[in-house]
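S1.2 Input.
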Amino acid sequence: MTQRTRQPIERNVAMELVRVTEAAAMSAARHMGLGDKEMVDQAAVDAMRHTLDGVSMDGIVVIGEGEKDEAPMLYIGEQIGDGSDPKVDIAVDPIDGTTLLSKGMPGAIATIALSARGTMHVPADIFYMDKIAVGPGAAGVIDIEAPVETNLANIGKALGRKMGEITVAVLDRPRHEDLLKQIRGAGARVKLVPDGDIATVIQAALPDSPIQAAMGIGGSPEGVLAAAAVRCTGGAIQCKPWPRNDEERQAAIERGTDVDHIYDTMELVGGEDVFFSATGASTGEMLRGVRFFAGGASTQSLVMRSRSGTIRWIDSFHNFDRLDKIRYES
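S1.3 Output.
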């Protein structure tokens, strides 16, 4: 298939996107521990949409909170920004880990990714995908169709590690019972993650991470957001559709989806310029959560750009009195 030449995005949009994830994380964190994950999600969505509208871009949401009739969520196909260039695809997960945040548990993050128009792809009619992801040191050695032990051996060889020195992050779900047996049977370690599909992959893809790989079945939309981050770190991710049952498989086939297709990093998120931002909502291993104090809050964010390969951790202090004044004046 002939690839269209896309104009590079000259400015570092990631530095503008961090304002979006900061706003989402702060708004959602106000509802931490209250037990209402819908309230958490709605607060993040409202803040994210409001902030996105002020970004100079012609954006279309390709990974969002559902279809238009599910508004006021950020729905697939929604136009975002002021309509000026660049023309971009946008993927959002206002809070990855809404259940975590609603229960006051660690590891919830607000996330957004952006790339040139027409470069983000995901099988929309398949809710889950099987995934394997690694950092830059093992980017060329993974094969999602290979046995788990083979992948772990190749990862260990690429990283110069013994099998017992490899840690694999896996979502703590009953569907992963066999996967866990295979990883442990090969002699590698497992880090079970209660929730947070995107953060799990990002940690595996970061340089010098204590996690060397992420494996297992997670959400398809989350796979695209994770792939955007992986593009920036120089790691690799492979995803394969995982229909939940025969009915979902057959329905997808009838709609023309190749359920055996393997999506690599570039197919999930292509183009020269990929931007990613995540802000901690509740404190986890990767990011510190929102901390409120009298008149303001502090946040910590992870901001990345693929073309430069720059990875930034940004600590910010927010003065609510001044921010409210700016909003009122605007």
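S1.4 Remarks. The longest helix spans residues 14-29.
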